[in-house]
Design brief:
Shape: globular
Number of helices: 11
Number of strands: 8
Structural class: alpha/beta
Radius of gyration: 18 Å
Bound molecules: ligand STX
Strand order of the largest sheet: 1-2-4-3-5-6-7-8
Helix content: 25-40%
Length: 318
């Protein structure tokens, strides 16, 4: 079992104005003359963290991390009452990535994305294939209705009936026919008692089910009130809108990526983004290497997942 690369600090960081009154936090770590890679975090709304820097050899990579609109250290924060979610869509994020690439003087780069980050990586690469050197994708998520139904409308409840009760608890019984919509109402209720409780239960469900075994540290981090509110509001907003693409579009258009070396890492027991999506993607990307990890869940730092991710970034480093 491999460890992540050592902890490192950024050699540069800043806030990039992306318009609509918003700025995204970015940082660069590792070797300024190394191979550029950009890390796309999950959620959406999850933010990037110091451990994400450690997936790449700092001697060989120029590692770019950023916080997507409205979360992490980007401003304003989606937990604020006045935050305007209408200027936060997939296509805003794709444009932000291009703006950041230009700002950093990068010509082409490797795209690394897990979970929601894999969806954003596909959306970006299908829009700008000429900018992408390689793709490393983990826990494949493309926001198809079947995927949202699985995780947020009762599929995974078959495995976690106990946790599912907590997810249902804030939702009035007559609104339980469509939970993503019911949560949208709750998360934007003007009463802080209502929206805060909904945000915490939304985030508790996700953070309690993304690891093969429960990890109290992960749950504590994602149920911190202001983190949970931004995370839940942003995720729910993206799901209500189906990512602003047609159901199945990201997989349908993956043929555009035929020239891009790709590794897909998927945990067999990933309850958040089960293997059906990685499988469907691999079918339309026959050149991609699919690594199905037999004893892992969803998170990037599950043992077998981490090994496969490090193997991929090491292989693509030269
Ligand atoms: N959301 C999957 C996803 O991207 C459907 C994701 N789930 N949890 C996370 O990300 C965090 C680890 C960022 C909380």
């Amino acid at each position: 079992m491999r460890r992540m690369y050592p902890e490192i600090e950024p050699y540069d960081a800043g806030l990039l104005d992306v318009g609509d009154g918003q700025a995204i936090y970015w940082e660069t770590c590792g070797n300024p003359d190394g191979k550029p890679v950009v890390f796309l975090h999950g959620g959406p709304g999850g933010g990037s963290s110091a451990d994400h820097r450690r997936l790449f050899d700092p001697a060989r990579y120029r590692i770019v991390l950023f916080d997507q609109r409205g979360c992490g250290r980007s401003t304003p924060h989606a937990s604020a009452a006045e935050y305007d979610l209408s200027a936060n869509t997939t296509w805003h994020l794709v444009a932000d990535i291009e703006k950041l690439r230009g700002h950093l003087g990068v010509d082409t780069w490797q795209i690394f994305g897990g979970s929601w980050g894999s969806a954003l990586a596909l959306a970006y690469a299908e829009t700008h294939p000429d900018r992408v050197r390689e793709l490393v994708l983990r826990g494949i998520f493309t926001l198809r209705k079947a995927e949202l139904d699985w995780f947020y409308e009762g599929g995974a409840a078959a495995v976690f009936p106990d946790l599912w009760e907590h997810f249902l608890a804030p939702v009035p019984v007559e609104q339980r026919g469509h939970l993503i919509r019911a949560y949208s109402t709750l998360l934007h209720d003007p009463d802080p008692v209502v929206h805060a409780a909904a945000a915490i239960e939304w985030s508790r469900w996700e953070s309690s089910t993304i690891t093969l075994l429960p990890r109290p540290d992960v749950i504590a981090r994602f149920t911190e009130p202001s983190y949970a509110l931004a995370f839940a509001r942003i995720e729910n907003h993206y799901f209500v809108h189906g990512g602003w693409w047609e159901d199945g579009q990201l997989i349908r258009d993956a043929g555009r990526l035929a020239d891009i070396p790709t590794v897909i890492v998927q945990g067999r027991y990933d309850m958040c983004t089960p293997p059906m999506t990685a499988w469907a993607l691999a079918e339309v990307m026959p050149h991609a290497q699919l690594r199905m990890i037999p004893d892992a869940g969803h998170a990037f730092d599950e043992p077998g997942i981490l090994d496969a991710l490090l193997e991929a970034t090491d292989r693509f480093a030269s």
